[in-house]
Every structure is written in structure tokens, then in C-alpha cells.
Design goal:
- The structure is a single chain.
- The chain is of the alpha+beta class.
- The chain has one helix and nine strands.
- It is elongated and about 75 Å long.
Length: about 120
């Protein structure tokens, strides 16, 4: 092959890839929402769109999913429920997801009472 053929082959390949990205060609022909040029993540054995879902307890859940933490409600994709005090049944604290539960209290934390 001559250098001109290499340049033409490379240009054709780049053109095809840019067309896929511009039109959002599906990764899977089964109708998956993920697109070739879109960021995606895995949760267990499933792919998901991190702009719409998160991985919580090895399950894909919507970003709006909430759960109880004592008498508080927390957003499972962004926060976590931690036991707080010497007796964990007394109180909980909602912390930003990723912060260690053993870290001291911060301004972003919410203290929640235990529900009896």
C-alpha cells in the first residue's frame, strides 16, 4: 500500500467513527439506551447511564431513589446512612456518599433520631 492509501483508509475510519458519535449509534441492537460515545458505568453485570442512575447495593437505581435513615430520608446515590453515637440504636447521621462513617461530624451531616 502506498502512503496515500494509508491516509485515505485512516480518513475513512475517522469519518465512520465520527458519524457513529454524532448520531448516537446504539451499543446493542436490542434497544439499549447506552450510546457508543456516551459515558457509561457497570453495576454488577449491568451497564447504566450515570446521568440517570447509580449503583446502590449492587443494583441499578434511579438518581432520585431515597431511603429512610432513622427519622430522616436520604438520597442513596449521593448520601449514606451511618450509625452515630456509642449506642448505634440511638441515632444516625446522613453523610455525603464516599465520606467514611467513622469521620467526625461535618457541616454537611444531618443527625437523625432513631425511630422506635
Amino acid at each position: 500500500m502506498t502512503p496515500r492509501c494509508y491516509i485515505q483508509a485512516l480518513s475513512t475510519a475517522l469519518c465512520i467513527i465520527s458519524l457513529f458519535c454524532a448520531h448516537g449509534a446504539p451499543v446493542s441492537p436490542t434497544g439499549a439506551r447506552l450510546m457508543l460515545c456516551q459515558a457509561h458505568s457497570r453495576c454488577g453485570g449491568k451497564f447504566y447511564d450515570p446521568q440517570q442512575h447509580c449503583c446502590y447495593d449492587d443494583a441499578v437505581v434511579p438518581l432520585s431513589r431515597t431511603q429512610k435513615c432513622g427519622n430522616c430520608t436520604f438520597r442513596v446515590c449521593f448520601e449514606q446512612c451511618c450509625p452515630w453515637s456509642l449506642r448505634p440504636q440511638e441515632a444516625f447521621v446522613v453523610k455525603v456518599r464516599g465520606q467514611g462513617c467513622s469521620l467526625g461530624p461535618s457541616l454537611d451531616d444531618r443527625v437523625c433520631s432513631s425511630v422506635s
